[in-house]
Write a structure and sequence with these properties.
The chain is mainly α. The protein has a single domain, classed as Cytochrome Bc1 Complex, Chain D, domain 2, CATH 1.10.760. α1 packs across α5 and α1 packs across α6. The longest helix has 16 residues. The relative contact order is 0.21.
Length: 138
């Protein structure tokens, strides 16, 4: 059950950010990116277990709760159930077919945003291009 929410959370976040295609991200952020890359390179051997940073599976308990909240505020449950096919596939079936990887999460997020059919049959999923304001506003 948590696997489903771990998969749906990144999809919801990508939908909320609209793929980072905003004009705000095109400003003078090159130096900030360079600093972040440098910091990551210097701290690649840092022990993150002390604060449990980066040691939990994607999402963790908080991510699962946030994913549930995002899905409850959307119309996902109109067509999808956790463990049984309704109009669209069950969340468990989606999680089984697409293991959690960056490529799969990106592809599924794009599918949620743009909608369409063909992955699970001929019934089209409506596009969901709107912005979820929950996690993006904080």
């Amino acid at each position: 059950m948590k696997k489903i929410y771990y998969l749906m959370l990144p999809l919801a976040l990508v939908a909320a950010c609209k793929g980072n295609s905003s004009d705000e991200n095109k400003g003078g952020s090159d130096s900030a990116k360079a600093v972040n890359v440098t910091a990551k390179a210097r701290n690649s051997d840092a022990d993150t277990n002390v604060m449990k940073i980066g040691t939990e599976p994607t999402g963790g308990e908080a991510g699962s709760a946030m994913g549930q909240k995002l899905m409850a505020s959307s119309d996902c449950n109109t067509c999808h159930h956790t463990d049984s096919k309704l109009i669209g596939p069950a969340f468990q079936d989606v999680a089984s077919r697409y293991p959690a990887s960056k490529a799969n999460i990106s592809m599924l997020a794009k599918k949620v945003i743009t909608g369409g059919s063909g992955h699970w049959g001929n019934i089209a999923m409506t596009p969901h291009p709107y912005n979820w304001t929950g996690p993006t506003s904080s």
